[in-house]
Amino acid sequence: MTRAQTAGRRKQMFPEVGGDAIAFAIGNRGYVGTGLNGILAWAGTKRKDFYEYNPITNTWTTKDEWEGNFGGGVYFASAFSVNDKGYLVCGKFVTNDWSKKANVPGGTRYGVTAFAMNGKGYVGCGADENYYVNSFYEYNPNTDVWTERAPFPGSPRFNAIGLAINGRGFIGLGTDGGYQKDFYEYDPVADHWMQKASIPGAERRSCVALPLMVMVM
């Protein structure tokens, strides 16, 4: 079946209504969970439910609920997957106690950007309760150790996109008080950032990025 034949084909709807959830993929399955059951943060309830999507059968299956934050749910978190395991990091009203892994350095934050490559996870940017930040960290799941890496060179920001392609990481868009559309590439070997061409179209935040090809919505 060609891409033209599959383009625009509607898939089974996600079982719940809400926003500010996390998503990651393991193998040929997608995973979505947490977030809010309403559009507005002050009007919604934090969620902890979790679901698996099978693209072959076009079905969603309920999975174990996220157990962090004393069972209270979380939103504005981020996630990545490494070695067939998913990791939820940071988030709003979360105590960093999920799966008893090492805390992300730099204090509590939310709206961070996360991606994985070369068997390691990367987390950066976001906001605490007072400021936007641009610090950037690498996680080794084999040793459960976080290492500070070169900070994101753009303005400190919240709800940027992140993805990895061919062993390089990319972060862009988001808001630092105003919407942005700049785009940066990270080389994990050299621990170096390089600015790339800005994403076409209007500035924005809270977008979707797909690593198969750079697509922003």
Written overview of the protein:
The protein is an all-beta fold and 217 residues long. It contains 1 helix and 14 strands. It has one helix at residues 3-6, and strands at residues 22-26, 29-36, 46-54, 59-63, 78-82, 85-89, 113-117, 120-124, 136-140, 145-149, 161-165, 168-172, 183-187, 192-196. Strands 1-2-3-4 form a 4-stranded antiparallel sheet, with no helix packed on it. Strands 7-8-9-10 form a 4-stranded antiparallel sheet, with no helix packed on it. The longest helix has 4 residues, at 3-6. It is globular, with a radius of gyration of 17 Å. The model is unreliable at 1-6, 92-98 and 213-217 (pLDDT under 50).
Essential attributes:
single chain; 217 residues; mainly beta; 4-stranded antiparallel β-sheet; disordered N terminus; disordered C terminus
Helix and strand layout, with pairings?
Elements: H1 3-6, E1 22-26, E2 29-36, E3 46-54, E4 59-63, E5 78-82, E6 85-89, E7 113-117, E8 120-124, E9 136-140, E10 145-149, E11 161-165, E12 168-172, E13 183-187, E14 192-196
Antiparallel strand pairs: 1-2, 2-3, 3-4, 5-6, 7-8, 8-9, 9-10, 11-12, 12-13, 13-14
Summarize the structure.
This protein has one helix spanning 3-6, and strands at 22-26, 29-36, 46-54, 59-63, 78-82, 85-89, 113-117, 120-124, 136-140, 145-149, 161-165, 168-172, 183-187, 192-196. The protein is mostly beta strands.
